[in-house]
Amino acid sequence: MTQTSPHVIIIGAGTGGLCLAQGLRQAGASVAVYERDRTRTNGLFGFRVGIDPDGSRALTACLPAELFEVFLATKAETPRFFTIATERGAELLRMGDGDSPEPADPIDSEKSISRMTLRQVLLTGIEDVVHFGKTFTQYERGDDGTVTAHFADGTSTRGDVLVGADGSSSGVRRQYLPHATMQLLDAQCVTAKLPLDEQTRHLLTPEMLRGVTLVNAPKGYGCIIHVMEFKWDREGHLKHGIGGNDGELLRRWPGLKYDNTRDYIMWGWSAPSRLLPAGFMRLPGPDLQQIVLEHTTGWHPRFRALFAAADASTAFPLQVRTTAPIRPWPSTNVTLIGDAIHTMTPGLGVGANTALRDAAILARHLIAAHRGEQSSVEAVAAYERQMHGYAWDLVARSKKQFGGALPLDKPVVGRVLLAAMRTGLRAFNHLPAAKRRWQKSMEDTRGHGRVPSVDQERR
Questions:
Q1: What are the start-end ranges of the H helices in 218-325?
Q2: Calpha distance 22→335 (Å, rounded)
Q3: Rounded to an integer, what distance in angstroms lies between the CA atom of residue 35 and that of residue 135?
Q4: Greater confidence, 450 or 60?
Q5: CA distance 437 to 200
Q6: What pLDDT was estimated at residue 253?
Q7: Sorting pLDDT into bands at 50, 70 and 90, what band is 411?
């Protein structure tokens, strides 16, 4: 029986949805993306995303080769250190080597990426199939096997496959899997950024300047600090005299929009929700910044200065949450990718990479349907079998790694747990072999050394 090439509707122009659209477009498959943001530059929240080898494999499978090179050219300098410190600045654990060179392998390496720039790279070249200002409301199935998506402005579109890539508050998931639930962890965050310049450099230790720093504080408070230092400015001109010719590559994409106009420091501060005021998630940036300062009076002056120097207009709140795992469901022509189906805590830092992995796998199977090798539902079923095989383990491990369930805010129990945790980290810091094993375990989680077969991860 001859299969008809499916038209794929994607709800959401985030990381996973755009990667899927790129992969389908490169194969000549019919695809359209519908995004609630009104313009290409709306909704650019978040400052950094770490792309691991799984994410890079997905991007190289779905992007045109030259656009993947643009992705590589716009990354920040690779972090050399991972450090855990107390709120008073004492080192608990240090991993890494400040003298190591930039990774040579474009795939099997970690990359610090501006989340906003990544979105702009993923939008480049598929502008004609991305429709902005489209808020999804519901879908309905037709007797002919098609699916119609409806939008708040009264318009609709019909296709053969509907993909929910609309994030943790997914409207597609609410309708398709109403039994799927989200778990709120007892943790809320403020994230903000400030320019990296001569003045703010003096607030950072050498390890902080060239790495990722995690602050471990009493009562369940914590903070993560990243430095984002880029090679290129917006026009593709070199900064700092670093050699290379990537700037010309960037200038060959006049439609590319990216935010690497200045280097910056970003921080994310977190606290147990019950220690924060009611209405925290609705507060404006200046109020959020003031709350951080009020809750960190005993912290090292370096950290306090970073909090105070942040641009208050960049501060926004986050509620840490995760998806409750669910059993596989019968596959249809509706499916979900990324946070729409498996929201993760920041504990492992693999949420965006898993969305990219979803997108590459689903793209491969939908391309097979486009070629008439299987039906659309068979393509969705093949993707979902694979997704169920890795996603729920990562959801559980991310939740455990984040540690949001530990009662660190309890007066007595919290002090005991914190003391034990810090003692363990200090001891671990003096065990090189144990640190190497832990690093290898983390690298395995993030896809290092995982060699894909051609028919599994690449077209």
A1: 246-251, 285-294, 301-309
A2: 18
A3: 7
A4: 60
A5: 35
A6: 67
A7: low
Count CB atoms within 10 A of the CB of residue 405: 11
Q: Name the nearest CA neighbour of 116 among 44, 170, 50.
A: 44
Question: When comparing pLDDT for 173 and 250, which is higher?
Answer: 173
Name residue, tokens 């230092």.
Answer: 229
Neighbouring-strand partners of residue 114: 48
Q: What is the largest CA-CA distance in the chain?
A: 71
459 has pLDDT over 50: no
Give me the pLDDT at residue 241, please: 44
**CA–CA distances in Å: residue 223 to residues 65, 85, 269, 283, 361:** 37, 10, 4, 19, 34
Cα 225 from chain centroid?
16
Residue position matching structure tokens 């306090």: 304
Q: How far is CA 49 from CA 112, 348, 352, in A?
A: 6, 12, 7
Give CA angle at 102 (48, 115), nearest 5°.
Answer: 15
Give the pLDDT of residue 454.
33
Instruction: Kindly report the three-state secondary structure assignment for every residue of 163-220.
Output: EECCCCCCHHHHHHCCCCCEEEEEEEEEEEEEECCHHHHCCCCHHHHCEEEEEECHHH
pTM of the model: 0.89
Q: Tell me: pLDDT of 225 over 80.
A: yes
What is the spatial distance between Cα 268 and Cα 277, in angstroms, rounded to a whole number? 18
Nearest residue to 25 (alpha-carbon basis) of 353, 358, 367: 367
Residue where the block lists tokens 């641009």: 311
- Is residue 323 a contact partner of residue 338, using CB atoms and an 8 Å limit? no
